[in-house]
Specification:
about 300 residues, 8 helices, Uridine Diphospho-n-acetylenolpyruvylglucosamine Reductase, domain 3, 3 domains, Uridine Diphospho-n-acetylenolpyruvylglucosamine Reductase, domain 1, Uridine Diphospho-n-acetylenolpyruvylglucosamine Reductase, domain 2
């Protein structure tokens, strides 16, 4: 049975940024079959395809996306001892509490992390010294071109800092993930999760629409000795020694700088927030400004952590 995508769906409604124009075509796949049929529809209609996860780390263009926007909603959640089989469409916020209830430890670092599990695997999301790669046993995906189903073990996922093979080759859609966790106390696990959530609330500008940290932190090993000396008190492990991008942006004097409806957050300058009906073009102006000013002051080129669509 062929799928029937919707037309001209406004993507701002599916973005935590509340920014973005229409998808030419839009479909939400509830299972493997619908995901594969979406790929076939795209091929048969000579339509480019774009995979949209939770919309929490992506800047969607003001004029939208041409072709088919596919949003996987696969919500598998199966437990086998300390291994959890998770659908790519499940929200990380729901997963961390589901495993905590069963006394499964290993995802506490993700307390308060937005987005879907599929997106977190694709970008090897991490915080507080933890990363998705630490828990992934294998990932099941489907190739956009050949429709071949793949199962990759942890090493086959080629995880790197905020990266994976799924992000590098950009042609495999993550549909299901097996996570191997440890046993622990449900009470202690939940306490740790709540601490992470509170940390984010205290330090991140959650009062405004945002897509999280705009730039990757800078590998301290790649920084100059002068910068390391200057930033020595703020260097942290993430999961290796890094200089926070927020520090560099702040020291470049950009806190609170705005353009159109977007602003570099005063609370956490690695966030560019939507303060008043911001457009994608407003955010891009501030991204360019931050990169240029940090480069001029520190000789460091910031690299976007989020996906910026043209």
């Amino acid at each position: 049975m062929e799928i029937t995508p919707r037309k001209n769906v406004i993507l701002a409604d599916f973005s935590s940024y509340k920014i973005g124009g229409p998808a030419e075509y839009f479909f939400e796949a509830k299972d493997w079959y619908e995901a594969e049929e979406s790929l076939r529809w795209s091929k048969d209609n000579n339509s480019p395809i774009f995979i949209l996860g939770g919309g929490t780390n992506i800047l969607i263009p003001d004029d939208g996306i041409r072709g088919l926007v596919l949003k996987p909603l696969i919500d598998t959640l199966e437990f086998n001892d300390n291994v959890v089989l998770v659908g790519a469409g499940i929200l990380m916020a729901d997963l961390v509490y589901a495993v905590a209830d069963l006394g499964l430890s290993g995802l506490e670092w993700a307390g308060g992390l937005p987005g879907t599990v599929g997106g977190a695997v694709r970008g090897n999301a991490g915080a507080f010294g933890g990363e998705m790669k630490d828990a992934v046993e294998y990932v099941e995906s489907i190739d956009e071109k050949s429709f071949k189903k793949n199962t990759r073990d942890n090493s086959g996922c080629e995880f790197d800092y905020r990266n994976s093979i799924f992000k590098k080759n950009n042609r495999e859609i993550v549909l299901q993930i097996a996570l191997k966790l440890d046993r622990g106390s449900p009470e202690q696990i939940k306490k740790s999760i709540e601490e992470k959530i509170q940390y984010r609330k205290d330090r991140h500008p959650m009062e405004y629409p945002n897509i999280g940290s705009m730039f990757k932190n800078v590998d301290a090993k790649k920084a100059s000795s002068e910068l390391i000396k200057e930033a020595r008190e703020v260097i942290k492990t993430d999961p290796f020694p890094v200089i926070p991008a927020a520090y560099l942006i702040s020291e470049a004097g950009l806190k609170g700088v705005s353009f159109g409806g977007a602003m570099i957050s005063q609370k956490h300058p690695n966030f560019i927030v939507n303060i008043s009906k911001a457009k994608s073009s407003d955010v891009k102006e501030l991204i360019s400004l931050a990169k240029e000013e940090v480069r001029k002051k520190f000789g460091v080129t910031l690299e976007e952590e989020v996906l910026i669509l043209k």
